[in-house]
Amino acid sequence: MDLKAAMHSIVDAFCEIPSEGGVLLEVSEDDDYFDEGSPGPIWFAMKSDTLFIGVTFNSNEFLSEKTEPDAVNAVRRALEPFLTRHRAVLHRWTLDPVLAADPFVINILLQPALRGRTLQDLYEIGEGVLALLAALQGATLTREATLDLLRAGRAEILIGQPEGPWLDVKSAHYDLTRVGGKVSLAQSVARFANAEHGGIVVVGMKGKKVPGGEEIREICPLPDDRGVLRKYQSALENHLYPPPDYLDIECVTVKEGILILLHVPPQPEELKPFLVHGAVVEGATEGAFISIVRRRGESSIPITAPAIHATLAAGRALLRRGELPTGSPADP
C-alpha cells in the first residue's frame, strides 16, 4: 500500500489529527507494517499531502535555535552532507519546551524525495540522522563518537565531514611489500601517537582537498582479507618505537568489503616522542634513518632538533635526580 494513502486512510477512519495538522505513525523497519499510536524515535508525518520523516532525539545540550543559533547551525551543517546524499532536506527543528532539563528533547522534520523509495529507505534515513546526532553531541564529531560510528558499520555517515587533527583517511592499503610503505604506515601512526589527543587512521575512505582543509568524499572498500591485519601489526612492530599503548588495528565490515581501522588513543607523555625506523628524504626511503613526526591540524610536521634535545635533556635531568618516569624500562 502507498504510504500516503495509508496515512490518509487512518485519518479518515479515526479522525485523530494532532494540533499541528499532521498524522503521526510509529513505523517498524518492516516495509509493510504500520501502527497508529504514539511515535517512537523515528516516525512519519503527513501535512498538506507532504510526507515528512520525524526524528525525536534526546540531547545532553540545550540546542535551541532562538538562544543557541550557532550550535544548532553547526549541527545543521554537519547533517547536510548526509541528507544531500540521501535526497532529503531538514524542514524544521523544534526543542520541546516542556522537558527543559537534560536530556533535552528535540524533534526534527525531514522532507525526503519519494520517487523510487521504500519505507525501509526512509526509515534508514531517520536511523542515519539519529546516529549522526548522537555522534554530534557538542556540535562537533569527537574521536570517540567517530570510532563508535565506524565500528557500528556506519562509515557512510562520515562522508562530507572534514578530516582534522585526529582523523586521517587513505583510499588504498599501504604498500607493505616495500620498506617505503611500511615507513609511511609507521609515520601515520606516530603522528597521532605524538599528538595530544591521539587519532584515527581509516584505510578505505577517500578524502579531497577543499577550501580550508580536506573532507571525506567516499568509501573505497578493500577486499575482505583479514590476514592483512597481521601485516600491519608486523610493519609497526618493526618500524615504530616504542609500541603505542592500547593501539587498535581492526577490520570494519562495509558493503562490498572492509575498512582497516587504526585507533591511536592519547599516549602517556613519558613514552614520547615515538620514533620511526626509516625516513622519506626527497621522495626516497632511507631505511637507516630515524624520523619523528607529529600532527598539526590536517598536516604533519617533523619534530625539530631543539625539541628533541629538550626532551633528552629533561630525561637526563630526571636521571641525575634519581627519578624515572612511571613505566620506564628501568622500573622493576
Automatic annotation (TrEMBL):
Signal peptide: none annotated. One of its GO terms (molecular function) is ATP binding. Keywords: ATP-binding, Nucleotide-binding. It comes from the Bacteria. Residues 163-271 form the Schlafen AlbA-2 domain. This is ATP-binding protein.
